[in-house]
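Archive record:
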Amino acid sequence: KECVRYLRKACAQHGIEMQDGAQSNLIGTPEKVSRLYDLFEGRLGTSVDDFSQARTVKGSADNYRLIWKEADHYLRNQRSTPGAVFVLDQSGLNSARQQTRLAAREGRMLTLRPLFQGGTPGQALQGA
């Protein structure tokens, strides 16, 4: 919270117009997620993956979904439906249609984000 306020103040002092926001996996209590939502005045997004086993809490995709859904439902009922990003990687391609339909039913703005593999074959990062 202090970092966000510091950045806002520094930008204002230098005449820099900016609008901040955050993306969160919503893995936290509804109260904690609500405070994050309020800090960014509703400019809070999330990422969704309702059909794969890629996202886990303590090795469990079911635990991840349970925690995520509790926070998401709280925001949807008490604030607004957060927009979301869905990553189109190899596993995501298989469930993109289902995820898109679910977002439409929930009234959720959904951004499909294709995974991009940068660089060229054989290119190595020097000095990192």
